[in-house]
Fold:
Amino acid sequence: MVAIGELLDAFALEPAGEGRFRGANVPAEHGVVFGGQLLGQSIVAARVGHDDMIAKTVHTVFARAGRPDVPLDIEVDVVQSGRTFASCRVTIAQDGRTCTSSIVLLSADEGDLIRHADAPPAVPRPDELAARGETGDWEIRVVGDVDLSDPDAVGPADLDVWTRFAGAPHDPLIGQALLAYATDGFLIGTAMRPHAGVGQAQAHRTLSTGVVSHTLTFHEPVDPAGWLLLAHHSPYAGHGRSYGRADVFTEDGRLVASFVQDAMIRAMPAQSGGQL
Structure:
């Protein structure tokens, strides 16, 4: 269960010195901080001191898992700051050990010289779909009623998911942070879909899974209180890794963001002869 208040608390970073912050955690399953929270916090931290800009791209490498019962230490190093672009290196750590390292590119708004955008896939609208499980203020509708947890539910390496955050404020920065949170949740399961006997229910039990790197690019402002379609596709999995990409569309068909993700999918050490 995800409450919007808990997410907003996690994104309300506490100043701890020049370029330094402390961050709270959203309660998480499996005793591991959800990677989407760290993506959102990296965006929020990079924006401090750049009030006239908004995040364009965040590229994050996940070094190790974080514990939800330990506060986060967040450090921002401004690499470059100009009138149109700025870039920051954001490091999130616990007990002196790095959890994530991100490069965040910030951009001022500019007018169009040229413009085009892909159209969304033809899928049912969210009000035509049933809710999947109980997720609190994070509402999710999965097209085709796909159950990523079921290891016997085999299908193509594609997944369309409608998502929104009930009660989210209409704030551009929070909108980006909440979308970042949502983008972390589905590409590993999408890569598992074609393979019988493999599903997300086995993650952290018989399968060792985790995001290795994640890159999210924003094209347009995001309203996370409205329905957003995350159209996922995984073109490759192998060597204990998976690769996936997705586009994010509004309910009226506008392309607002895109992201790619590299992840780890392998047997737990006990199932692989102890080899890591």
User: Anything to note?
Assistant: The domain at 4-109+130-271 is CATH 2.40.160.210 (Porin). The CA atoms of residues 76 and 86 lie 12 Å apart. The first helix runs from residue 4 to 11. The first strand starts at residue 14 and ends at 15.
